[in-house]
């Protein structure tokens, strides 16, 4: 939920970005839901700190793009390391994160 939380914080700081960013944030939530269903149990993570968003909208969007790049790279690595039954799902998440960058840059 880390990326979704960052989107939430960005939207709270810059509500004028809602139309562009809400669909991407919602996709991250759907990815978490899909992983939970595929794994069969909730993801184990500590409660994330609420991210802070500083600066003008362009700076906030640049921070989202950096987080998406890292998320994409992490998802690609997770896909390569995952069990065969999860690889298609994790691979599709990596592809979605790559497409999210198109919205942000």
First CA to last CA: what distance? 22 Å
Average of per-residue pLDDT values: 88
Which outline best applies?
Answer: globular
User: What is Rg?
Assistant: 14 Å
H-E order: HHHH
What portion of the residues fall into strands of 2 or more residues? under 5%
The description of the largest β-sheet is: none
Number of helical segments with 4 or more residues: 4
- Fraction of residues in helices? over 70%
**SS elements, strand count:** 0
Task: Supply the number of structural domains.
Answer: 1
Q: Which spans of ≥5 residues are poorly predicted at pLDDT below 50? A: none
Strand pairing plus helix content: what structural class? mainly alpha
